[in-house]
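can u do me a favor
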């Protein structure tokens, strides 16, 4: 092996990112959150480096970690209510915050229903983040789907009220929902949950560090009946991934998602989160960025992103074949197609023009109504100066997309899939099905519309098994 210098290694690592979507500049409208401020990047990197070897497993050995975490939680509670007894936990991201909220609710339900062998239920609007479904899977809760209004895409309080029962361990609402960027009626749902003696969690992972600066309807821990709230600092807190907060007004709630054991011959283990060893670097970076930006800095960034969103929504009225779904409450926008335009083709056309817009398949609700396929756009402060270019490319892409035939999956594959038992499929059988669908293990197709159309046409359990197979193929090392 040729000797390598540290510079060689870093150059090799950097070269690996050549095919990645850009993390800065505002053209990647999912997955990343760019403040547009070079100072934020430099400060966060330096803070993260200063704590890169610190282990947040034990704050008694590293008291700096306790201070950083306490300051972040205090900042979150100061922004999002909760009262003098309120507490919180720093987690690795929104998914972990949601997992812990469900775990705490399950712990409470079991404690208040001794001897009850039924599975507790998670009352979940269909637009709630998939992390809650993952939590139900991991912690053995039954998901009770709650449909949303077809026009507003908001959950209806009356539907929640009808589905509340003695088995309900937790009700979830979104502020805003990820798929459509709309704000659920938090106060109304929380009041219903409170009257039934059921905890209510607000998923504000995206909106929690935005909404307080935009004068929204009440949605946070100050709302009667809201027992917990999740908010990500690696989204509109503009910190590196991954760092999130799970906040609650009830200290007993936090006990319900922790774990402690002295039942082995090693050191006593006490974990407030799912992880043991926890990286302190992202926490330190979030702390540094928050200290530097401050309330007014976040306010400026939030309003810049919101203004850009309003300009985008207004300009979309002139883009042929697209419509905005729901009423965007913050900086998330969902676009559906009309007049013959398929948004899956639109996503491919925008990719060719240097933008990443996230396709979202159509969704069949419990009552038989269908939410349309959409494109998800996350607007950040870095997008603010690019709205005219985005609108121009959207109009150009729409004109090209409407000329294309609808993406239709192979009917033979769809028919064959309807008779499959996804749980019985082996890895080799999934590989064969993927190869038949044109995903033979090489790079993904340049145009993904046919793939997304296939996923939408398959029975959901089969689609989920094939999607697992796609990721399985991505993570096969070369030798």
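np, heres the sequence
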């Amino acid at each position: 092996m040729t000797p390598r210098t540290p510079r060689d290694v870093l150059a090799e690592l950097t070269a690996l990112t050549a095919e990645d979507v850009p993390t800065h500049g505002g053209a990647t409208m999912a997955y990343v959150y760019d403040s547009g401020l070079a100072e934020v990047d430099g400060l966060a990197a330096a803070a993260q480096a200063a704590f890169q070897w610190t282990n947040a497993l034990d704050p008694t050995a590293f008291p700096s970690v306790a201070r950083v975490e306490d300051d972040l939680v205090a900042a979150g509670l100061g922004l999002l209510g909760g009262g003098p007894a309120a507490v919180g936990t720093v987690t690795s991201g929104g998914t972990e915050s949601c997992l812990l909220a469900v775990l705490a609710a399950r712990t409470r339900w079991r404690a208040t229903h001794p001897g009850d062998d039924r599975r507790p239920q998670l009352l979940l609007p269909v637009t709630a983040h998939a992390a809650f479904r993952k939590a139900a899977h991991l912690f053995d809760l039954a998901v009770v789907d709650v449909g949303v209004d077809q026009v507003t895409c908001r959950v209806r309080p009356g539907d929640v009220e009808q589905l509340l029962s003695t088995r309900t361990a937790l009700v979830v609402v979104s502020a805003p929902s990820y798929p459509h960027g709309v704000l659920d009626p938090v106060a109304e749902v929380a009041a219903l949950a409170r009257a039934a003696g059921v905890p209510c969690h607000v998923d504000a992972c995206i909106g929690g560090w935005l909404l307080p600066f935009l004068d929204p309807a009440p949605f946070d821990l100050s709302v009667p009946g809201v027992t917990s709230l999740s908010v990500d600092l690696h989204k509109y807190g503009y910190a590196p991934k991954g760092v999130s907060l799970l906040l609650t007004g009830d200290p007993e709630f936090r006990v319900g998602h922790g774990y402690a054991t002295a039942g082995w011959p090693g050191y006593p283990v006490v974990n407030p989160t799912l992880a043991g060893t926890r990286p302190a670097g992202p926490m330190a970076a979030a702390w540094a960025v928050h200290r530097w930006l401050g309330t007014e800095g976040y306010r400026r960034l939030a309003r810049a992103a919101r203004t850009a969103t309003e300009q985008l929504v207004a300009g979309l009225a002139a883009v042929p074949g697209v419509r905005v779904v729901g009423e965007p409450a913050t900086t998330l926008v969902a676009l559906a197609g009309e007049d013959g335009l398929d948004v899956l083709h639109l996503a491919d056309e925008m990719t060719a023009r240097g933008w990443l817009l996230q396709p979202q398949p159509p969704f069949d609700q419990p009552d038989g109504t269908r939410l349309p396929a959409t494109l998800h756009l996350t607007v950040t402060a870095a997008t603010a100066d690019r709205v005219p270019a985005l609108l121009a490319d959207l109009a150009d892409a729409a004109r090209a997309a409407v000329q294309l035939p609808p993406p239709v999956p192979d009917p033979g594959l769809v028919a064959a899939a309807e008779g499959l038992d996804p749980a019985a499929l082996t890895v080799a059988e999934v590989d064969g099905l993927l190869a038949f669908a044109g995903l033979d293990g090489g790079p993904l197709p340049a145009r993904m519309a046919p793939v997304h159309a296939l996923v939408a046409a398959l029975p959901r359990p089969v689609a989920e098994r094939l999607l697992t197979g796609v990721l399985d193929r991505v993570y096969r090392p070369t030798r």
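The chain has a mean pLDDT of 93. hope that helps!!
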